[in-house]
Design a protein that fits this description.
Blueprint lengths: L24 E9 L2 E6 L2 E13 L21 H7 L25 E8 L2 E7 L5 E5 L6 E6 L3 E7 L7 H14 L2 E7 L7 H12 L3 E4 L8 H8 L3 E5 L6 H8 L9 H6 L10 E4 L5 E4 L45 H7 L5 H14 L5
Parallel strand pairs: 3-5, 8-9, 8-11, 9-10, 11-13
Antiparallel strand pairs: 1-2, 1-4, 2-3, 4-5, 6-7, 12-13
This protein binds guanosine-5'-diphosphate, magnesium ion (MG) and zinc ion.
The site of magnesium ion (MG) has 2 residues, from α5.
Length: about 375
């Protein structure tokens, strides 16, 4: 690895012109804190600043996997995406074709780095993002990307203690559908026994095409299957508190709890200053995004016009309402979504979730 000239160089030198003969190193952003990014490059981690104006890498961000995961869901159509644009509430969004180079890097970004020596470097290029999980930043309304290039989300709920809240699961599912992220539902704490109502929900979600695993961080049940689904890609682990996320992370990423941030060590500030997700390396290859920085996931919304597509049972009829501005209400003539409900193509509980998310997305109080 080529080294910078002086041992005293610091990240403060990032504005210097790069020397053309120095090769850039490929890496992945694993955390961002206080303007610095930690970039995993081969076997090491570099603490990086970012070039004021990033170049777009010619290479598209490759999936973290070498073999493409076979069941990857297709993201929403670009038309659906275009309709979701412009709204200040758009919080989970996909890059449109020909997206500009991101002006700020985010965890999960595939980057090329100029090494400066002393475990430091400058991010020079960033690859186009495959997926984006973002929330709108309050100040300028711009989307704040919490995690880029996630391929997969493991959504964790406990079978009991606490009892699962399937309305919340429907919200997470809608977000993941909107972002084009494949989902595995983990029904954790299955060592405590499987209540009949959870079994019923399991059948519902499996019937919709979602992968469902009965896991236990205590007994280790189905963790091999979970590992297999995490292998060689970027996965988000999310879910309400108390369901066993930290316990699962501790099993899946030994030493994760002890892991300290290079940024924290350098700046003297704690891990809580991390913005967005932190990527933890998996033994089997790939990354697990710790949900600590993105626990507000439950508060994010999908734009109302995109919501019907985010419920897989409604997707086939999402464009079929008689009027383009259909409100999908009970007294709406020719509402294809209501017709799907009447025909039994969506269960009433899922439709209730849809209506609740629709009200929220429209800014109505529910
Ligand atoms: N019986 C049982 N308890 C679990 C399991 N996973 C986690 N717990 C317990 O549930 C509680 C919350 O776990 P934690 O990992 O902190 O949940 P988090 O808030 O989602 O990170 C702790 O007391 C854990 O010991 C499990 O698979 N089975
Ligand atoms: Mg936890
Ligand atoms: Zn309608």
């Amino acid at each position: 690895m080529p080294e910078a000239d002086g041992a005293t160089e610091t990240v403060g030198r990032c504005d210097e012109a790069m020397s053309p003969d120095r090769p850039l190193l490929e890496g992945i952003v694993i955390a961002i804190a206080r303007g610095f990014s930690e970039v995993s490059v081969g076997q090491t981690t570099l603490l990086c600043t970012q070039r004021g104006r990033l170049r777009r890498s010619r290479r598209a961000a490759t999936a973290a996997s070498s073999p493409q995961w076979p069941n990857r869901r297709a993201p929403l159509s670009s038309a659906a995406r275009a309709r979701g644009r412009g709204g200040s509430r758009a919080v989970s969004d996909l890059p449109a074709e020909g997206e500009e180079t991101p002006s700020r890097i985010a965890p999960g970004d595939r980057v090329r780095v100029m090494p400066l020596g002393g475990q430091q470097g400058v991010v020079e290029e960033v690859s186009p993002r495959r997926t984006v999980l973002a929330r709108s930043a309050s100040e300028d309304g711009g989307a704040h990307v919490m995690l880029a290039n996630a391929d997969h989300a493991a959504l964790v709920f406990a079978v009991r203690d606490p009892a699962p809240h399937f309305g919340m699961l429907d919200r997470y599912l809608a977000l993941c559908e909107h972002a084009g992220i494949e989902v595995t539902i983990c029904l954790n704490k299955v060592d405590l026994g499987m209540p009949p109502e959870v079994e019923q929900a399991e059948r519902l979600y499996a019937g919709l095409g979602y992968g469902v695993l009965r896991t236990s961080a205590v007994s280790g049940e189905h963790l091999a299957e979970l590992r297999e689904r995490l292998r060689s890609r970027i996965s988000l682990l999310s879910g309400p508190s108390g369901v066993g996320k930290s316990s699962l992370v501790n099993v899946l990423v030994p030493g994760a709890a002890q892991r300290t941030s290079a940024v924290s060590e350098t700046t003297g500030k704690g891990r809580h200053t991390t913005t967005g997700a932190r990527l933890l390396p998996l033994q089997e290859g790939g990354w697990l995004a710790d949900s600590a920085g993105i626990r507000e996931l439950a508060l994010w919304n999908v734009p109302p016009e995109d919501l019907p597509r985010c419920f897989v049972e409604l997707r086939p009829v999402a464009d079929d309402c008689l009027y383009e501005d259909c409100e999908h209400g009970t007294d709406e003539a020719g509402c294809a979504l209501r017709a799907a409900l009447a025909a039994g193509h969506i269960t009433p509980v899922r439709f209730v979730s849809f209506e609740r998310l629709l009200r929220e997305a429209r800014g109505e109080t529910s």
